[in-house]
Amino acid sequence: MGIHVIAEFLGVNPEKISRVEKTREILDRVIAKSGLNAISSSFHQFEPHGVSAVYLLSESHLSVHTWPEHEYVALDIFTCGADEPALKAFELLVEEFQPKIIEKKIIRRDLYEKNRSSNTKGTCSL
Amino acid sequence: MGIHVIAEFLGVNPEKISRVEKTREILDRVIAKSGLNAISSSFHQFEPHGVSAVYLLSESHLSVHTWPEHEYVALDIFTCGADEPALKAFELLVEEFQPKIIEKKIIRRDLYEKNRSSNTKGTCSL
Known about the structure:
The structure is a homodimer. The first copy, chain A, has helices at about 15, 20-35, 85-95, 110-115; strands spanning about 1-10, 40-45, 50-55, 60-65, 70-80, 100-110.
């Protein structure tokens, strides 16, 4: 039912990830281009720098936490439904943040499907 | 630097996870008891039932997505700093939701630490 892209970026330009305004601009663009549907978004500015951003999606959520002092971004894209928008959002995040090092894991969140006896396809609250 | 508890619950009483009001009450209680620090929270009510909830924490985030029709909850607790509050929150979520089946993964989010040459301990934006 669900795909969860868990990624870490290293070597990101701190100017892109220090202040909410700039990071939000980037993330809004990524969401718009990805095909994901944002319901709401919330942000927090850490001082002296660093951003947390979470987008509630009709497909689940996308979150970004930044540590500009380490040029580091931790991101999650968890979606139900088709995989493509989540994978597209990940590609767009790579293009935008241009990290020097990427670590990426993809986890399937399908416990309820594994535990069903029927063969009907899982639904997604969209 | 960070711990990420990724869990799925199956066999959860749908009454606890169908409407924002009830689920929020449970999650607010879990956050308060866990030692985690919520900065803000956002919720979405799916119709006819189902809840998405994301808490932005000073330690990162906690998210819950529910599919009451499958008695299913997907949850994430991602925190920087000490592991204990995240693990405590997970225990409290198990107590509250009383799932019949649990699948849990713990991921370390420590890419920047693995790529440093120094031995200094990672900082957390707290």
